[in-house]
Amino acid sequence: MDGWVVGIDLGGTKTALGLISPDNRVVAHRRMPTNADEGPSSVVERIAHLVADLEAEVPGGERVAALGICCPGPVNHETGTLLKLVNLPGLSNTPLRQLLAERLNLPVRLEHDAKAAALGDFYFGAGRGHRSMVYVVIGTGVGAAIILNGRLYYGETNASGEVGHVSVDPDGELCHCGTPGCLETFTSGPSLVRRYRRALQEAGAPIDEPTITGEQITHLAAQGDPIAARLMEQSGRALGIAIASMAMILNIELYVIGGSVAKAGDLLLEPARQTVPKYCFKATAQHVQIKASELGDDGPILGCGWLARHAS
Fold first, then answer.
1. Cα-flanking dihedrals φ and ψ of residue 36, to 5°?
2. Nearest 5°: CA angle at 149, between 147 and 150?
3. pLDDT tens per residue, range 4-26
4. pLDDT (tens digit per residue) in 286-309
5. How many H helices and E strands in the chain?
6. Burial bucket for residue 154 (CB in 10 Å: 0-12, 13-18, 19+)
7. How far is 229 from 267, CA to CA, in rounded Å?
8. Which structural domains are found in the chain, ordered by start?
9. ∠ at Cα 259 (312, 191), nearest 5°?
10. Which residue has the higher pLDDT, 82 or 60?
């Protein structure tokens, strides 16, 4: 499908919309608080108003042809239904695709946010020219999307990509999922904050910032904060162990890292690159590439745009 489409990244606190041109550029943005507790009707109505606002910017009297929308999982991409959402309980069990399609009289595709971001980078970012790719998103949680020979891999029960809950240290901290030493306990934003505060307490140092975030810790590491730098190196090593395991199992060469914590760049990625050869065959490791996402916050929006172009 050619023409203008809208990509929508529906998040736990805010929702971002992007108007995407026929040559796949995000040319205009809109944002709104998600306010999922107001219920599906309110969310759909506010999205519809912003879509109309974006459509007013389409030149030459053309119209938006389709929508793509993504959100934190779990979702059923086949039926277009949101399932039981921890971060968006007010939208749990909502047939969101149907509601949006009926309200706007447009084709709509719905996908998990990590998978949408993966599609964005695969077609328009760091994955261009590759046949396969793993996209790892590191933020409040850690997840992954697997693209094999140009197609998303969902698994038998639509649950593939839970790399955040792969144990990289069997003697490590207990994850909220019940498994010790999950990758998420090393790399997620909340885990970084918890470990940073613990390290400050052990060092007898004051905690000056009561609302510090994982992204702020990455900035501190870049500025030379020794505790933050050590945590980022540990996180990078844990990520490298997980990538080495995936490389051995999947024999995929490209691993693209996105999400808020991944904005740390080489502070996180270089320790991962150095760790991979220690945990898999040298012949496998020499082909592994670990890159940062090239699209930033527009990744999920562009992925949703790609989905919109393939909406029926």
1. -60, -25
2. 60
3. 999 999 988 899 999 999 999 99
4. 999 999 999 988 999 999 999 999
5. 10, 12
6. middle
7. 8
8. 4-111+298-309 (3.30.420.40), 126-292 (3.30.420.40)
9. 130
10. 82
Token couple for 85: 């959402």
| Distance (Å, whole) CA 171 – CA 95 | 42
Q: How does DSSP classify residue 62? A: -
The DSSP H or E segment spanning 108 is strand 108-112
pLDDT digits (tens, 9 = 90+) for 230-254: 999 999 999 999 999 999 999 999 9
Determine the Cα–Cα distance for residues 150 and 77; give it in Å rounded to an integer. Answer: 17
Number of Cβ atoms within 10 Å of the Cβ of 231: 25
CA distance to 94, 128, 264, per residue, from 269 (Å): 37, 20, 8
- 3-state DSSP percent of the chain in helix, strand and coil, to 5: 45, 20, 35
R_g of the chain, CA atoms, integer Å: 20
86-90, 108-112, 116-120, 144-148: least confidently modelled range: 86-90
* Better-predicted residue by pLDDT, 158 or 144: 144
Helix/strand/coil for 43: helix
Amino acid identity, position 37: D
Strand pairing category for 4-10 and 14-20: antiparallel
Read off the DSSP letter of residue 175: P
Distance separating alpha carbons of residues 199 and 226, to the nearest angstrom: 11
Has residue 106 got a pLDDT over 90?
yes
